[in-house]
Amino acid sequence: MAGAVSGSPTVLEARGLTLDFPAAQGSLRAVDNVSFTIRQGERLVLLGPSGCGKSSILKAAAGFLSPSAGSIALRGRPITGPGPDRVVVFQEFDQLLPWKTVRDNVLFGLKRKPGLSTAEARDKADAAIERVGLARAASAYPHTLSGGMKQRVAIARALAAEPEILLMDEPFAALDALTRERLQEELVGLAETLGFTLLFVTHAIDEAILVGSRLHLLSAHPGRTVATFDVSAFGPGSWGSQDFEHVAGEVHRILFGGALRRSARPVLQEATYV
Ligand SMILES: Nc1ncnc2c1ncn2[C@@H]1O[C@H](COP(=O)(O)OP(=O)(O)OP(=O)(O)O)[C@@H](O)[C@H]1O
Q1: Pocket test for ligand 1, best of 56, 169, 202, 225 (most atoms within 8 A of CB)
Q2: Where are the beta strands (DSSP E) in the chain?
Q3: Which pLDDT band holds residue 94 (cuts at 50, 70, 90)?
Q4: pTM to 2 decimal places
Q5: What is the model's pLDDT at position 243?
Q6: What is the dihedral of CA 251, 253, 259, 261, to 10 degrees?
Q7: Whose CA is nearest to atom 9 of ligand 1?
Q8: Residue 61 to residue 85: CA distance in whole angstroms
Q9: Can you give the residue ranges of the ABC transporter domain (predicted)?
Q10: How far apart are CA 139 and CA 144, in angstroms?
C-alpha cells in the first residue's frame, strides 16, 4: 500500500498546524506546530493520549476550526469551512436520522452533492448500502439496527457522497470488541477495494496499527508530533505476530514510556493515560 500511494497526489496537508481554544485566561493551545501529508489512498491515523488534540485536528480538517498558526489544505486549497469533499463519521451513530430508513439516511448524505438526479442518487445510495453489506436492511429504521449496523450505515452514507477524504473520530470506540474487530477489517477492506483516503483518530494502539497505513504520534497536551510509523504491512490477521507486537511496543514506549503489557487480546491502554 505504501508503495502504491507514495507517488499519489496529496489530498490533505497540514503545515505547522497550531490550534487554540478560547480560555478563561487568554487561550488554550490544543495542537502545536503539527505537519503531515495524506496522499490519495492513504490511511493516516492520529494517535496519542487523551486530550492531545486529535479531535481538534480532525475538526480543523472538517472546517469547523481555523488554525491560529500554520495551515491545513485540501488539494492545495486552504480549508476555510465544511464542504461535501470531506465527510466526518463520529462515534455517535445516532447521527442517523431515526425517522428515515437506512436507504433514506444514505440518500440524505447525498443532498449536498450538486448535479445528481434522483435516480443517480438512489443508485449511488444502493451501491453504498450493498458495499457495506446492508442490502437486506435497506428499508429498516435505525432503532432496529445493532450499533455495528448503524455504524455501517454511517460509513455507507459517507462513501456514497464520494468525498475526497473520510474523517473518522474514534468510530469504533463504543462497540463491543468483536464488532469493533469486524468493522476494523471491513473498513480496511473497503478502503483497499475502493481506494478512499482516510484520516482516522484513535487512542487505541492496536486499532491504529490495524486500520492505518501510517501512524502520526502526538505527545500529551498540547499535541506535538513525536514520531511517525509506516504500518502499511499490517492488516487484519496481523494482530499478535512478532512484527506487530514489536511496533505496538515501540509505539507504547514512545507515547507512554515503559513496556506494553499484554493480558489478552486488546484490552486498550486506557489506564495508562495521564
Ligand atoms: N471547544 C473547546 N473549548 C475549549 N477547549 C477545548 C475544546 N475542545 C477541546 N478542547 C481542549 O483541547 C485539548 C484537545 O482536545 P481534543 O478533544 O482535541 O483531544 P483528543 O486527543 O481528541 O482527546 P480524546 O482522546 O480524549 O478525545 C484538550 O485540552 C481539550 O480540553
Answers
A1: 56
A2: 10-22, 27-39, 43-47, 69-74, 77-78, 86-89, 165-169, 198-202, 214-218, 225-230
A3: low
A4: 0.85
A5: 92
A6: -40
A7: 56
A8: 11
A9: 12-245
A10: 11
Cell numbers 507514495 correspond to what residue?
A: 6
Ligand 1: residue of 52, 200, 226 to mutate (most ligand atoms within 8 A of CB) is 52
CA nearest to 209, candidates 268, 164, 156: 268
Residue 145 dihedral angles phi and psi, to the nearest 5°:
-100, 155
As given in the structure block, the three cell numbers for residue 231 are 504500518
Q: List all residues whose CB is within 6 A of at least one atom of ligand 1.
A: 21, 28, 30, 48, 50-56, 203, 221
Residue 171 has pLDDT above 50, yes or no: yes
User: What is the ipTM score, two decimals?
Assistant: 0.97
Q: Is 69 helix (H, G, I), strand (E, B) or coil?
A: strand
* pLDDT 10s digits, 51-66: 999 999 999 999 999 9
Q: How many whole angstroms separate alpha carbon 161 and alpha carbon 111?
A: 9
Q: How remote is the CA of residue 68 from the centroid of ligand 1, in Å?
A: 15
Q: Per this entry, what is the length of the chain?
A: 274
Q: Is the dihedral of CA 100, 104, 105, 111 positive or negative?
A: negative
Please give the residue that has the higher pLDDT: either 263 or 267: 263
DSSP string, 141-173: -GGGS-HHHHHHHHHHHHHHT--SEEEEESTTT
- Cell numbers representing residue 48 in the block: 496519542
Q: Which amino acid is at 143?
A: H
